[in-house]
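Weekly puzzle thread! Below is a chain. First person to post its structure in C-alpha coordinate form gets bragging rights.
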Amino acid sequence: STKFLVDISNAGEFEISESGMTVCTGRIYSQEGSVKTDSSELLESNDLRLLPLNQNDIYKELKLRGYDYGPTFQGLVGADVEGNKGLLKWTGEWVVFLDTMLQVSILGSPKRALCLPTRIQNIKIDPIFHKTVINSALKEYNGLPVFHDKNTKRIISGGVELKHLKTSVAPRNQGKQIPLLEEYRFIPYNETKILSKSDEET
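Winning reply:
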Protein backbone atom coordinates (compact mmCIF):
# COMPACT_ATOMS: atom_id res chain seq x y z
CA SER A 1 0.00 0.00 0.00
CA THR A 2 1.08 3.58 -0.68
CA LYS A 3 1.82 5.78 2.35
CA PHE A 4 2.01 9.57 2.24
CA LEU A 5 3.67 11.81 4.83
CA VAL A 6 1.94 15.18 5.35
CA ASP A 7 3.94 17.96 7.01
CA ILE A 8 2.22 21.28 7.86
CA SER A 9 4.14 24.22 9.33
CA ASN A 10 2.77 26.94 11.61
CA ALA A 11 2.63 29.34 8.64
CA GLY A 12 0.30 27.00 6.76
CA GLU A 13 2.91 25.71 4.33
CA PHE A 14 2.42 22.00 3.66
CA GLU A 15 4.35 19.26 1.95
CA ILE A 16 3.20 15.78 0.97
CA SER A 17 5.90 13.20 0.37
CA GLU A 18 6.14 9.52 -0.51
CA SER A 19 9.22 7.42 0.19
CA GLY A 20 11.24 10.59 0.81
CA MET A 21 10.16 12.20 -2.50
CA THR A 22 8.03 15.37 -2.49
CA VAL A 23 4.85 14.88 -4.51
CA CYS A 24 2.93 18.03 -3.58
CA THR A 25 3.52 21.39 -1.89
CA GLY A 26 1.31 24.38 -1.16
CA ARG A 27 -0.18 26.71 1.43
CA ILE A 28 -3.41 26.27 3.34
CA TYR A 29 -5.22 29.02 5.22
CA SER A 30 -8.64 30.09 6.46
CA GLN A 31 -9.98 33.09 4.57
CA GLU A 32 -11.81 35.76 6.50
CA GLY A 33 -15.45 36.05 5.57
CA SER A 34 -17.34 33.98 3.04
CA VAL A 35 -15.70 32.36 0.01
CA LYS A 36 -18.95 31.74 -1.84
CA THR A 37 -18.54 30.65 -5.43
CA ASP A 38 -20.61 31.72 -8.42
CA SER A 39 -22.77 28.57 -8.30
CA SER A 40 -26.03 30.46 -7.78
CA GLU A 41 -25.46 32.81 -10.73
CA LEU A 42 -24.38 29.95 -12.99
CA LEU A 43 -27.46 27.92 -12.07
CA GLU A 44 -29.72 30.78 -13.08
CA SER A 45 -28.16 31.02 -16.55
CA ASN A 46 -27.80 27.29 -17.32
CA ASP A 47 -30.33 24.53 -17.87
CA LEU A 48 -29.13 21.23 -16.43
CA ARG A 49 -32.29 19.19 -16.93
CA LEU A 50 -31.42 17.92 -20.40
CA LEU A 51 -27.75 16.93 -20.70
CA PRO A 52 -26.82 14.99 -23.87
CA LEU A 53 -24.25 12.68 -22.24
CA ASN A 54 -25.25 10.20 -19.56
CA GLN A 55 -22.91 8.35 -17.21
CA ASN A 56 -22.24 5.48 -19.62
CA ASP A 57 -21.40 7.88 -22.47
CA ILE A 58 -19.03 9.90 -20.29
CA TYR A 59 -16.96 7.00 -18.98
CA LYS A 60 -16.87 5.28 -22.35
CA GLU A 61 -15.28 8.43 -23.76
CA LEU A 62 -12.86 8.73 -20.83
CA LYS A 63 -11.85 5.09 -21.23
CA LEU A 64 -11.00 5.75 -24.88
CA ARG A 65 -8.67 8.48 -23.63
CA GLY A 66 -6.87 6.05 -21.33
CA TYR A 67 -8.73 6.56 -18.04
CA ASP A 68 -10.12 3.53 -16.24
CA TYR A 69 -12.27 4.84 -13.40
CA GLY A 70 -13.76 2.31 -11.01
CA PRO A 71 -17.37 2.53 -9.75
CA THR A 72 -16.41 4.69 -6.76
CA PHE A 73 -14.89 7.42 -8.92
CA GLN A 74 -17.58 7.41 -11.62
CA GLY A 75 -19.24 10.48 -10.14
CA LEU A 76 -20.28 12.29 -13.31
CA VAL A 77 -23.93 11.40 -13.95
CA GLY A 78 -24.46 13.80 -16.86
CA ALA A 79 -22.63 16.41 -18.93
CA ASP A 80 -22.73 18.39 -22.14
CA VAL A 81 -20.51 17.51 -25.10
CA GLU A 82 -18.23 20.53 -24.64
CA GLY A 83 -17.47 19.73 -20.99
CA ASN A 84 -18.82 23.09 -19.81
CA LYS A 85 -21.43 21.82 -17.36
CA GLY A 86 -22.70 18.65 -15.78
CA LEU A 87 -24.08 16.92 -12.71
CA LEU A 88 -22.06 15.16 -10.01
CA LYS A 89 -22.97 12.58 -7.42
CA TRP A 90 -22.46 13.60 -3.81
CA THR A 91 -21.62 10.69 -1.52
CA GLY A 92 -19.98 12.66 1.27
CA GLU A 93 -16.48 11.61 0.15
CA TRP A 94 -14.45 14.75 -0.52
CA VAL A 95 -11.60 12.99 -2.34
CA VAL A 96 -14.03 11.39 -4.78
CA PHE A 97 -15.93 14.65 -5.26
CA LEU A 98 -12.82 16.74 -6.01
CA ASP A 99 -11.50 14.11 -8.42
CA THR A 100 -14.84 14.05 -10.23
CA MET A 101 -14.70 17.83 -10.62
CA LEU A 102 -11.38 17.41 -12.44
CA GLN A 103 -12.99 14.91 -14.81
CA VAL A 104 -15.17 17.68 -16.24
CA SER A 105 -12.09 19.53 -17.50
CA ILE A 106 -10.76 16.30 -19.04
CA LEU A 107 -14.04 15.77 -20.86
CA GLY A 108 -13.87 19.28 -22.30
CA SER A 109 -10.30 18.93 -23.54
CA PRO A 110 -9.90 18.60 -27.33
CA LYS A 111 -6.89 16.33 -26.77
CA ARG A 112 -7.93 12.69 -26.67
CA ALA A 113 -4.94 11.80 -24.54
CA LEU A 114 -4.21 10.66 -21.00
CA CYS A 115 -3.58 13.91 -19.10
CA LEU A 116 -2.71 14.06 -15.41
CA PRO A 117 -3.10 17.13 -13.16
CA THR A 118 0.27 18.59 -12.19
CA ARG A 119 -0.66 21.97 -10.68
CA ILE A 120 -3.68 23.78 -9.23
CA GLN A 121 -3.18 27.45 -8.48
CA ASN A 122 -6.03 27.83 -6.02
CA ILE A 123 -8.72 25.74 -4.30
CA LYS A 124 -11.49 27.45 -2.35
CA ILE A 125 -13.87 25.44 -0.17
CA ASP A 126 -16.78 26.86 1.80
CA PRO A 127 -18.31 23.83 3.60
CA ILE A 128 -21.27 25.80 4.99
CA PHE A 129 -22.27 27.19 1.60
CA HIS A 130 -21.58 23.77 0.05
CA LYS A 131 -24.06 22.12 2.39
CA THR A 132 -26.69 24.70 1.48
CA VAL A 133 -26.23 24.05 -2.24
CA ILE A 134 -26.36 20.27 -1.71
CA ASN A 135 -29.71 20.42 0.07
CA SER A 136 -31.34 22.43 -2.72
CA ALA A 137 -29.59 20.94 -5.77
CA LEU A 138 -30.15 17.27 -4.93
CA LYS A 139 -33.89 17.87 -4.66
CA GLU A 140 -34.10 19.76 -7.95
CA TYR A 141 -31.53 17.99 -10.15
CA ASN A 142 -30.81 14.71 -8.33
CA GLY A 143 -27.16 15.71 -8.56
CA LEU A 144 -24.76 18.53 -7.78
CA PRO A 145 -24.25 21.00 -10.68
CA VAL A 146 -20.70 21.56 -11.88
CA PHE A 147 -19.49 24.26 -14.27
CA HIS A 148 -16.24 24.55 -16.20
CA ASP A 149 -15.41 28.09 -17.31
CA LYS A 150 -12.66 27.73 -19.91
CA ASN A 151 -12.13 31.49 -20.21
CA THR A 152 -11.30 32.05 -16.55
CA LYS A 153 -10.00 28.47 -16.10
CA ARG A 154 -12.29 27.71 -13.19
CA ILE A 155 -14.24 24.61 -12.18
CA ILE A 156 -17.10 25.38 -9.80
CA SER A 157 -19.45 23.06 -7.95
CA GLY A 158 -21.36 23.96 -4.81
CA GLY A 159 -19.01 25.64 -2.37
CA VAL A 160 -15.87 24.45 -4.16
CA GLU A 161 -13.85 26.33 -6.77
CA LEU A 162 -10.73 25.02 -8.51
CA LYS A 163 -8.73 27.63 -10.39
CA HIS A 164 -6.03 27.35 -13.06
CA LEU A 165 -5.66 23.60 -13.36
CA LYS A 166 -2.62 22.51 -15.35
CA THR A 167 -2.20 19.04 -16.80
CA SER A 168 0.54 17.12 -18.56
CA VAL A 169 0.20 14.31 -21.06
CA ALA A 170 1.23 11.03 -19.45
CA PRO A 171 3.47 8.70 -21.46
CA ARG A 172 1.55 5.64 -22.52
CA ASN A 173 2.90 2.17 -21.98
CA GLN A 174 2.99 0.70 -25.44
CA GLY A 175 3.41 -2.78 -24.06
CA LYS A 176 6.21 -3.66 -26.48
CA GLN A 177 7.95 -6.90 -25.62
CA ILE A 178 11.01 -8.53 -27.10
CA PRO A 179 9.92 -11.83 -28.68
CA LEU A 180 11.31 -14.88 -26.95
CA LEU A 181 12.84 -17.51 -29.23
CA GLU A 182 12.31 -20.83 -27.48
CA GLU A 183 13.41 -23.23 -30.20
CA TYR A 184 15.27 -23.08 -33.49
CA ARG A 185 15.54 -26.16 -35.70
CA PHE A 186 16.54 -26.68 -39.31
CA ILE A 187 14.57 -29.39 -41.06
CA PRO A 188 16.17 -30.28 -44.40
CA TYR A 189 13.97 -31.08 -47.35
CA ASN A 190 15.48 -34.26 -48.75
CA GLU A 191 12.67 -35.58 -50.89
CA THR A 192 13.95 -36.84 -54.24
CA LYS A 193 12.43 -37.86 -57.54
CA ILE A 194 10.17 -34.82 -57.64
CA LEU A 195 10.30 -34.65 -61.41
CA SER A 196 9.52 -38.33 -61.84
CA LYS A 197 6.43 -38.00 -59.63
CA SER A 198 5.14 -35.04 -61.59
CA ASP A 199 5.65 -36.98 -64.83
CA GLU A 200 3.62 -39.91 -63.50
CA GLU A 201 0.73 -37.62 -62.54
CA THR A 202 0.60 -36.15 -66.03
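Puzzle host: Confirmed. Bonus trivia for everyone else. The CA atoms of residues 130 and 159 lie 4 Å apart.
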